Amino acid sequence: MSWGGRSKYWWDFLMAMTEKEIKARYKMAILGFVWIFLNPLLQMAVIGVVFQFFVPVKVDNYFLFLFTGLLAWNFFSYTVTKNTPMIVNERMLIQKAKFPREAIILSIVFSNLFHYLIALLLLLLIILVTGKINWWFLVCLPLPLFFLTILTSGLSLLFSALNVRYRDVNFVVQAVMPLWFYATPIVYTLNLIPQKLWVLFYLNPMTAIVEWMRYLLLGIGISDLNRLWWGLILSFILFIVGTIVFYKESKTFDDWV
Amino acid sequence: MIRNKETIIDLQNVTKVYKLHHEKPTFSDHFLSKTKWESFSALNNINLEIGKGEKMGIIGVNGSGKTTLLKVIAGITTPTRGKVSVKGKVVSLINLGAGFHPDLTGEENLFLNGMLIGMKKDEIKEKYKSILDFAEIEHFIDAPLYTYSDGMKLRLAFSVAIYSEPDILLLDEVIAAGDKYFQEKSFKKLEDMFRQDKTIIVVSHLLQFLKGYCDKVAWIDKGEIKKVDGISLLKEYTKI
Fold it and tell me: What is the pLDDT of residues B147-181, one digit of tens each?
């Protein structure tokens, strides 16, 4: 097969796997695909009501502030947590044929990205109704989304590959995710943190992504513009590392599952 | 030996070492070096050339490395040492039913399974009708797969694999899918493939089958090739 043919096959296969993920989720639900919209709306309603009475941070429109960060976080944490044991779970597939193994992982990333984008669209509608939006900022939105996807894919590939040999990785990821949530300024702003400690927060790539998203959608300022790039560079490095480790390990997945 | 056919599968000094662990290793065990690795060579320095259109039977006792050899040729795993070169599309009838999703329809599963074993989307569209006809499940193609019987699933999987038109077909034991009627039908289809210019490798304990359908036999013992010869090797094999 030519290079073009191979990459077309790769892409078609990945899309077929992604489609499977999305379809299979709603197959047995009476409301079916309505849940794609209903699910994030319900989530927003519940959290919106809760935080009406309990607002820990002084920010204009805390609901929007919270949700912009929360949606990005949910995409990231659901995907990485689900993907970590994925190669082990799909052992029957691995033993069946030679196919691009990364499609198993990336199909989860893409199907969750699809759901995230729909939720983001709903959030945008709410922002439009309740306030103003800077259209120029909106054009830039694909940039943080791109880095978020890169980071999520990279860690998914890395953890799922390592988990084949060391099943501990799954437990570590499950334990670390809630801590990571609180280490990311999602329910709070960095302004509440002594400035000396900001360095540490920016070592977390999610900090940069969440702040950037909030800046573009809500116009809330970024705490430290100079350090914003750390997160992006780190995301990129993690993606490269994840890809390399996954590629090396994938050759012998069959020996370990 | 005179070889006038193009070599399609070429294994050079192929060794596959598995690390035997009696329990799954964990991080802590690993660093405290509690686990004692036990190396096990499933394949040891295998040299094997298979020409285009050859039908090769692989014999040997259980645990001699036959399945590992098929996995290496199929590209499911990578050898520890050595070179493997395979020209053309390989399809194995290993784990036939794997990769089906119970909630998706027969049609959706057909496409997914086809792509999983390396078919292109357009190719599946082209052969869609023939696959359905052969599997004889047209009536149920819109139903989710969990409503299928095991026989129906196997029929669908077998049809997809057969219609993928591989250059190289790997059989781990001769698969008999479904009821007696379909078994005969699928066996006929396999016979057709044996008559065509396809390269076929069969791992089997059914020496009668190998005698009738293969033109070469490789005898594997303890991960090494003991001998490669014509079907007369089967006689030698049965003696011990």
Answer: 998 888 888 999 999 999 899 999 987 666 678 88
Domain of residue B12, CATH code? 3.40.50.300
Output b/e per residue, B69-93; b: 16+ Cβ within 10 A: bbbbbbbbbbbbebebebeeebbbb
* Range(s) of the domain holding residue B47: 7-31+39-88+201-239
Chain A residues within an 8 Å CB radius of B32 = none
Instruction: Identify from B21, B26, B87 which residue to disrupt to test chain A contact, counting A C-beta atoms within 10 A and taking the largest count.
Output: B26
Query: What angle do helix axes A205-218 and A62-83 make, rounded to 10 degrees?
Result: 140
Selected residue of B23, B94, B95 to mutate for chain A interface (largest A Cβ count, 10 A): B95
Q: Is the pTM of this model over 0.80?
A: yes
Confidence label for A214 from pLDDT (cuts 50, 70 and 90): very high
Of the candidate ranges A29-43, B29-43, B101-115, the one whose mean pLDDT is the lowest: B29-43
Residue B1 has pLDDT above 60, yes or no: no
Between chains, do B26 and A167 touch, taking CB under 8 Å as contact? yes
Strands (E), chain B: 7-20, 38-51, 55-59, 81-86, 90-92, 168-172, 199-203, 216-221, 224-229
Contact A254 B77 (CB under 8 A): yes
Q: Is the pLDDT of residue B57 over 60?
A: yes
Question: Given an 8 Å threshold on Cβ–Cβ distance, is B104 in contact with A24?
Answer: yes
Largest CA distance in chain B: 59
Asked if B25's CB is within 8 angstroms of A165's CB, the reply is: yes
Q: Structural domain tally of chain B?
A: 2
Clarify whether residues B157 and B228 are in a common domain: no
Taking an 8 Å cut-off on Cβ atoms, the answer to whether B26 and A168 are in contact is yes
Which ipTM value was assigned to this complex?
Answer: 0.84
pLDDT at B27 over 70: no
